[in-house]
Amino acid sequence: MPESNLLTCLPRLLATLMLCGVVIAVQADDATGDNAGLRRAQMLSFNCFTCHGPEGQGSGEIPALAGRAADELKARLQAYKRGTKQGTIMNRIARGYSDAEIDIIADYFAELERE
């Protein structure tokens, strides 16, 4: 695909991925039982796997998220959200999450073991 076509499609692709994340998060909110919180965290974190690899283990030059300190992940996501840290697409992705959702995502990845 020529680069110009990729750049044209990228905003639509990102919007679609974020919409999927919202739908999944809403479904997770409806979950009941002991694993509802875990399921919500997994659903919110699903978008991250596309770039950061399965279960946040890292993918090539994109860093692993699994096993990182929750406070570090929260600070970075908040910085992307506020625009004080620049990234290729992380600023747009982070703005799609509430502060509470950022906390859930960071806590989820902090609990995962890095392979």
From TrEMBL:
Pfam families: Cytochrom_C (PF00034). The keyword Metal-binding applies. It comes from the Bacteria. Keywords: Electron transport, Heme, Iron, Metal-binding, Signal, Transport. Residues 1-28 form the signal peptide. Residues 28-113 form the Cytochrome c domain. One of its GO terms (molecular function) is metal ion binding. The keyword Signal applies. This is Sulfide dehydrogenase cytochrome subunit.
